[in-house]
Amino acid sequence: MRLRLRSGLAPLGAALLAIGLLPGIAGCDSSSEVTLEVSPEEVEAIATAEPSAAIVAQPPPTSSAGPTPAPLSTTTPEATATVSATPEPTPTPDRSAEEFLASLAEEFHFLMAEEFEDLAEISEDWNPDSQISIALVLPDETLHGYLATESRISASAVKPLWAAAALEAAGVEAVRPLANAALILSDNLAGGRMIDLAGGVDEVNAWTRNVAELSDTRLEAWRFEDPNRVAEDFRPENPLGNRTTMADLALFFVRLYKGELLDADATAALQQWLLDTSHTLNSPRDLDGVLLDRLPPQVAESSLHKAGWLRPNCCPAEYRQMIDSGVIVLPDGSWFALAIMSARGEFFDLTNQWVALAACRIYAFVAEDSDLVCEREGDGVHDPEIWPETAS
What we know:
Blueprint lengths: L3 E2 L71 H8 L12 H30 L4 E7 L4 E5 L5 E2 L5 H12 L1 H13 L3 H11 L2 H10 L32 E2 L1 H12 L6 H12 L21 H6 L1 E7 L10 E9 L5 E9 L4 H20 L25
Parallel strand pairs: 1-3
Antiparallel strand pairs: 2-3, 2-8, 4-5, 6-7, 7-8
Helix pairs in contact: 2-10, 3-4, 3-5, 3-6, 3-8, 4-5, 4-8
């Protein structure tokens, strides 16, 4: 595994970069309504170390008897100064360039952690029962995150992985007819056919594990149009088996953008399809442009992403969520990968607002764009007319 973790983040009720593994449901993020088969049961699962005993330093023992002190010296002040002069200290070598950059990286890490904590407080204020995860991965695969390795229901956020596995197995021309529907419209039937092109669920999982090197992403079943499209070890009693983490999603996009997963033609095709996804929200009920909606237009148009969601009128409240992940390209050509999730909030309009705000705030921090205003009028105020089904 090539991921480099930064640790030492300050806690905010939940540890940053906590390692987690839980077992998703099929996504329902196409425009058509679908029936979701879910069970109402879901089990959720920090030990505090005992403080070590303090060690108190003791003064050195004194002797009750000893030699008589020698008389004070009668040498002249000049002689004394000459005798007691201390040598010049040896200069401390300058830090190497690597050490200097490492110190800057640590500063970035802790400042970024403070930003994550602030965003977590906003989420708690807007949607008190919401769960969030954030992963920011740099091109060298350094991860900065908030609960970035917690296992989450993947929904359709992982369709780019299915497309990549299909591209390797079947080639660009075989995948192209499905690309617009599966990746841009997020159609679940087209997504299932992508899995079929890859050779089935088990082959998708093998590609994810062995080629993409993502250890916490798994597809269990995608039974749209085909009830038999399941993993070999599929467990019918586990409706939440499609899982991923924000760290895995961001790592996938880093490795895709660097051209490490597929040949040149397949890489270019998949990147272009993900660049053709929506870069903004045309209405409050839109769902497929959340990550890029509040970024500067030039940045949004240059970035690629794929969202996945479980929305009202699709899923029980405890499963509703928004995930969006991709590569954010700065005006100077530098870039980073970002994956953000908010789930289980009572107000789905505020769930999507928060993901868009978080993406914008993180971009502004990384790009040092102090002029970018990420807040919008009406932020944090639930509008029951946007998703009236939320109450159901």
